Structures are given as C-alpha cells and as structure tokens.
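Practice problem 4.
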C-alpha cells in the first residue's frame, strides 16, 4: 500500500505565504524597473519586510523567485542585491529578443479598429511623457505600448519570456531616453508601427521593430561599456 503524499494540499499558512510572496515579487519588480532599487544595490530583508508590511518568510520566497528570474543576485554569506547586467548579459538579452519578438509580430491577427485605437492611445501617453521629459513615465508607457501589441499574439509562452527579458533590461533604458533626440525617435517609430498594424502588414512591423530595438540596444550598450569599470557597492548579510 502506497503512503499518502504529504502536504499534497497546501495549508492556509502556506497559501498565505505564497500570496504574500507574489505581492512582494510584484513590488520588488516595480522598485527595480522604476530605479528605486538600483543595479548592484543590496536588498535588506528586514527593512523590506517592514516597508511592505510582511514577515521575512515571503520576502525570502520572493527573493528566491527573482533570483531564478535573473532580476536579483545572491551571494552566500553576503546577501541579495539587484542584479547588475554585464555587457555580455545585455548582448544575450537582445540576441534572444530579436527572433522571439519577430515570431510574436508575425503571428499577430488582424487588429480590429478599436484595438488599433487603444494602441494609438498608449502611444499618445508615451509621446506626452516624452514631451514633458518624464523618463520614468515614458519607460513605463513604452512597455505598456509594446505589450498591448505583443499580448494579442497566440504565442503566450513566448510573450511571457519576452516580458522577462524586457524586465531585466528596463532599468538600463533610462540613460537612452534622457536624450531628446532619442525620445523623438521612439515616438516617431511608434507612429510607424501603428500604421503597419492598421494595414496588418506584419512583415513591415517586424522591420520597424528591428530598427526600434537596435536604437535602444546601441545606446544602452554604450552606457554599459562606459560604466563597466565602476566599483560595485558593498553588500552585507543581514
């Protein structure tokens, strides 16, 4: 007679910890993406638990999850820090993004007029932030614009992986968007993408996205090379 599987059904406590850890993951991702937590910065578990109003257990679970996703780095006997991309990491992100995003765009169905209008409104929010020089708002609205397109693809697993790659690189895109010419270029390229969507010209959309991606890759890569010799901030175990 086989033995019953222990803990097959999660307890109320484990469910609560899991739900709390999910909220912590989302909040830490937000802090990293917006730059409130910078690459290389230590993540103090006690302070983060106090800030988010949870115990240290969901903090640890969330940090393990984010370490597996690549957003957080862990060094035994030292602690957790926000992951710092090296040039080779950044190159690999863009190497993966190119074919995956192309497959997503080629798979897009015909967009109804209301969907095109919704994406155009997302592009307007990017343009407004660009005009105001609000780099953080522009980065967040830019992300929303692109995933309003990507998420209409039936390739949901590929879209999820592209989302992870975007999240890894987003903290580094701010430097690119401080340049007014770069902001204007992003806005103009979004307008061209909307025109291609309205015509259901997916091949043209792939071409435009390749050009769009290349601008961010080149400018952010220059920034990474310029700062790669900077010393890492010290981190200590809590």
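Answer key:
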């Amino acid at each position: 007679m086989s033995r019953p599987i222990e803990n097959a059904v999660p307890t109320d406590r484990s469910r609560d910890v899991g739900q709390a850890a999910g909220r912590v993951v989302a909040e830490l991702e937000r802090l990293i993406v917006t730059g409130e937590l910078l690459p290389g910065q230590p993540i103090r578990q006690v302070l983060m638990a106090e800030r988010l109003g949870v115990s240290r257990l969901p903090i640890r679970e969330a940090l393990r999850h984010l370490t597996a996703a690549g957003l957080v780095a862990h060094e035994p006997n030292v602690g957790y820090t926000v992951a710092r991309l090296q040039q080779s990491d950044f190159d690999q992100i863009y190497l993966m993004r190119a074919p995956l995003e192309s497959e997503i765009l080629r798979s897009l169905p015909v967009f109804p007029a209301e969907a095109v209008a919704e994406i155009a409104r997302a592009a307007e929010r990017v343009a407004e932030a660009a005009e105001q020089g609000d780099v953080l708002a522009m980065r967040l609205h830019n992300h929303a614009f692109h995933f309003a397109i990507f998420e209409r693809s039936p390739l949901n697993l590929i879209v999820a992986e592209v989302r992870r790659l975007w999240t890894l690189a987003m903290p580094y895109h701010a430097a690119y968007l401080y340049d007014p010419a770069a902001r204007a270029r992003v806005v103009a390229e979004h307008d061209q993408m909307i025109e291609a969507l309205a015509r259901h010209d997916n091949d043209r959309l792939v071409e435009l996205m390749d050009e769009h991606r290349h601008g961010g890759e080149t400018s952010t890569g220059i920034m990474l090379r310029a700062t790669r010799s900077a010393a890492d901030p010290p981190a200590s175990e809590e």
